[in-house]
Amino acid sequence: MDKDLRKEYIDRIKKDVHIMKYLPLELKSDRNFIIEATEILTKQHYAFLRYVDNSLKDDKEVVIKVVSKVADALVSASDRLKNDNEVLLAAVKNDLNSLVFAHQDLKNKLKGKTLNQIVHYFETAILHETLHSELSNVNNIQPKVKL
C-alpha cells in the first residue's frame, strides 16, 4: 500500500481509534503498520487492539507496544498474553488498574500489593523464566567427546 495512504490512515486513527473498524483487512493484519501506528496511541485509543487481526493480538511484541501506551487494551489481547509476565509488566507500568484483565489466581496473589511490589514480582518472574530457559538449553548440550 502507498506510504502516503498508510500515513493518512494513521492520522485518522489518531483522531478516532474506531476508524480502525473500517480499515482494509490488509492493514489490520499488517504487523509493520500496526507497530508503526502504536507510536500515536494515547489512553483514548483503548480500543486499538480490539480492531487488529487476531494473529496480532497474540503477537507479544505488538501487544507489549500497545499496552505500554494504553494499558486497558490488554482486555483485547489473547488469553495467552493476558497471562504473560512481560506483557503484564508493560501494562502495569502504564496503569496498575490493568491487572483487572490478568488471570484470577494472579490477581489474588497480588491483591493489596504496592505498585513497586507488583513490578518486582513481574521482573523476578521474567528473570526466573529466562534463567530456567537458559539452564534447560545448557542441560541439552551433548558432549562432543566420546568417552
Please, could you describe this protein's structure?
With 147 residues, this protein is mainly α. It has one domain (3-132). It has 9 helices and no strands. It has helices spanning 3-15, 25-28, 31-37, 54-57, 60-69, 79-82, 85-94, 104-110, 115-139. The model has no long low-confidence stretch (mean pLDDT 89).
Features:
single chain, 147 residues, mainly alpha, 9 helices, 57% helix, globular
Whole-number total of structural domains: 1
Give the helix tally: 9
Write down how many β-strands occur, each being a DSSP E stretch of 2 or more residues.
0
Helical residue percent? 55-70%
Summarize the structure.
This protein is an all-alpha fold and 147 residues long. It is built from 9 helices and no strands. The chain has one domain.
